[in-house]
Amino acid sequence: MQVNLPTSLDYLIIILYLVIVTLIGIFSGGKQKSIKDYFLGADVVPWWAVCFAIVAAETSTLTFISIPGLAYLTNLNFLQLTFGYLLGRILVALVFLPAYFQGELSTAYAFLENRFGYKTRSFASIVFMFTRTAADGVRLFATAIPLKLMLGIDYPLAILIIGLIALSYTSFGGVRGIIWVDVIQFLIYIGGAIVSALLLINLIPGGWDKIFSTANEFQKFNIINLGLSEGLAKFFSQPYTLISGLIGGAFLSMASHGTDQLIVQRLLATKNLKSAQKAIIGSGVIIIFQFFIFLFVGILLFVFYGKLNMRSDEIFPYFIINVIPTGLKGLIIAGLFAAALSTLAGSISSLSSATVMDILVPYFKRFEDDRKKLLASRVVTIIWALLLIFVAFLFMESSQAVVEIALSIASFTYGGLLGTFLLGIINKKATQEDALAGFVAGIFVMITVISLKLTAWTWYTLIGVVTTIIIGSILASLQKK
User: Fold this and answer.
1) DSSP 99-159
2) What is the pLDDT of residues 173-183, one digit of tens each?
3) In this predicted model, which residue has the larger pLDDT, 181 or 420?
4) Residue 363, exposed/middle/buried by CB under 10 A (0-12, 13-18, 19+)?
5) 343 vs 8, 216, 222, CA distance in Å?
6) CA 20 to 30 Å from 455, out of 328, 360, 375, 420?
């Protein structure tokens, strides 16, 4: 593969970007006097900033390079999933957020303590920590793949650069600094995608006529897929159908945005319930727009290149390296950095907040002083950053596609986690023992379903949720007799 490495101008743009976002992250965080300031932003972050920060946090480099590749191979069927994402966020706004804003909740898992007890809270928090560390370690490594190619550096150096920059403004700026940097990150990477699309439109001979004729010939603009063409027997093995998109996307979004501390931490940083609801629903609208842009870039790449003999997630990086001119190339690479840093910084902060709020403070009385809590929080932040870097190093030798690894890791636990939250809301008789048994059952069922590949990945979360609720409810009914 031909590689046109960035020029001095590209490197200058990338370095300026990294320096600027680091400084903004540090200074926009203000002076933290307590762990509430550090992890919750002292409840002074506007809802629209949290809205953009949510989208940036869930958009990794995997999304930036893989979604265009998906449309290059197929069409716009993936958008059906984003409609489910919006539906799931509306349900989070109506069902979960009112419960979160009743009283002083510091993490998503504090709700489980209020409903079931401390064991459920700590177990859910620990499950989150393991899942988030593994999944985001993979995402950190995934970022190193295009950066290694584009900057001509080794994997370990690329991983260290991203990890240490994210650590610097996470440690000093707290969640407020992270949110404001994420707003900038969103504008940079979405701007990079739009610039790529405009450049492709300009480069394709024949312009819009060629784009529409080729896309229509290969049915690239197809959005709705009922999934009935291959019969009911294969219905649940298709990931991107209208039903699996709406239902699977809704439950996945409810799990990731209603029970995952990465997102809930941002929602708790808003001023009140109404602001949090606007932020979560607004992010669902933006995510549809964002994925349409990424998918449209993939269609344009298909029209521009035709069929290339390479992996689909290599197509967009290949275009960036060999076609995008100097200066703009630096901007696009900065967009890759932006997608990576937003996810990584949020992951470090959410892991730290869960460790301090759910484990250290309840267990160890020595952390009652605000200064000690704040110092411990910064130390824990450094430890989690180093652990994520270490996990990314472990995946350097993996031969499996990183997208598959990242998706499967989250799927193992999301169903059980969401099911436990819903069990607490809909079944008033369920006790802590019922919830823990249902949670564990949901995880084991998901391990079986995923290992045997019984359904498409879009159904994983729903299966885990149903298992957890059924087992928990049965146990609750038996104890009352």
Assistant:
1) HHTSS---STTHHHHHHT-HHHHHHHHHHHHHHHHHHHHHHHHHHHHHHHHHHT--HHHHH
2) 566 777 888 88
3) 420
4) exposed
5) 28, 35, 30
6) 420
